[in-house]
Target: Homeobox-leucine zipper protein
Amino acid sequence: MAGGRVYNGGSGGGGSSPLSVLFQNQKGSCASQPLDSLFLSGSSPSFLGSRSMVSFEDARVGNGSNRPFFGSYDHEDNGDDDLDDYFHQPEKKRRLTADQVQFLEKSFEVDNKLEPERKSQLAKDLGLQPRQVAIWFQNRRARWKTKQLEKDFDALQASYDSLKAEYDNLLKEKNELKAEVVLLTDKLLLREKEGGSFELSDANNLSQEPLQKQGSESACEVEASKVSIVSCKQEDISSAKSDIFDSDSPHYTDGVHSSLLEPDDSSHAFEPDQSDLSQDEEDNFMSKSLLPPFIFPKLEDVDYSDPSESSCNFGFPVEDHAFWSWSY
DNA sequence: TTGTGTTTTATTGCCTCC
DNA sequence: GGAGGCAATAAAACACAA
Model:
């Protein structure tokens, strides 16, 4: 016996029926069905007693020579000698019979906690020591917890996989859009060189005056236009934005916006950014870029929760799509 | 039959609650 | 301080392939 711990070996509970004890804490109203059938399958539980180490003597006394006491745990040859040897062998672990386990399982389903009265009654009904019943419940709770942890793990794994796939898709989309930006910017610069520069003040006239019609200007004038664009203040952007969105032509405001193609650190939750643009390349690109910052919000600024705003919209209302239909 | 991995029963020590 | 729960672990019982 364990040192220090005194186990309740008493038989407990007097005349209450097994079911009344079993279901004293029952929450459902119809849960007695399985146990009823279990009990009613015979005049008395055929698994009374056990070969468990602790209850061995008790069971022998309590059941006399009642062979069914051994349940399904049969010896091939149960001669008297064997039986005698069996009873005199040193105490060993005995597995509970299938019926005993089934009964305990049903009881566990009703309530996985064991009150003293219920424990005593179960022990009495099963021919086990109350301690054995307590141990069985203890181990059963441990198994249940393990199973529960496995379930939780599987659920979390599935959730992770889903989020990972979503993240990968967004990353791919982001890179595709980056490539598109590069392409469009190249076209823009080419067009700028061909068609000359313009300043923000010209933007309002852009729709009426296509760039092609602007006369060719020197390269130095092109650079000058960039400077004027860069120096454009943020308040100009907001006012220009409304104008721009009324126009189907591209407009330039604060062309240098580091957030445009900057790798988003917050998007590294799963793995490093696989962007093919290095930071230097991107900075270089951005220094040349004349694109307004509100066109390219950071990825984390885009609210994907709204189905009406796909990542392709960059968080802009759908009605602003016309802005993207640049024609060259 | 035997070696090995898994499951089940039981012990031990620590912790919490009343 | 005792009772009981839990985690860790031991050890017997069991399953199964070679």
